[in-house]
Specification:
Length: 98
């Protein structure tokens, strides 16, 4: 089974991580199905999400590049910093980052 994780992007966009590859939502949902494409510029890999479940048979896993593990880690760290900064407004970002 694929390792799937939904990640909130920096500007509030939706990302899906599948096996350390990062996908960005292509457009607003059409009905209950959302379409995602790989964030790498020339990669044609894509997938579909229906009712918050990745349709495994819809995944095109023909990536033309290494995985996005570093970018996924960065997104998670940024998300945690933003969350703590909102919860602790008097704590500096540097103190949160450490």
């Amino acid at each position: 089974m694929s390792n799937v994780e939904f990640i909130l992007a920096q500007r509030g966009g939706a990302h899906v991580s599948v096996n350390n590859f990062l996908f960005k939502r292509k457009s607003a949902p059409f009905g209950s199905t959302e379409y995602y494409y790989c964030i790498s510029k020339n990669c044609k890999s894509s997938l579909q999400v229906k009712d918050n479940e990745v349709l495994i048979n819809s995944i095109n896993e023909n990536h033309s590049h290494p995985d996005h593990q570093d970018q996924i880690q960065r997104l998670k760290i940024e998300r945690n910093i933003r969350k703590r900064a909102a919860e602790e407004p008097f704590t500096s970002v540097l103190a949160i980052y450490r």
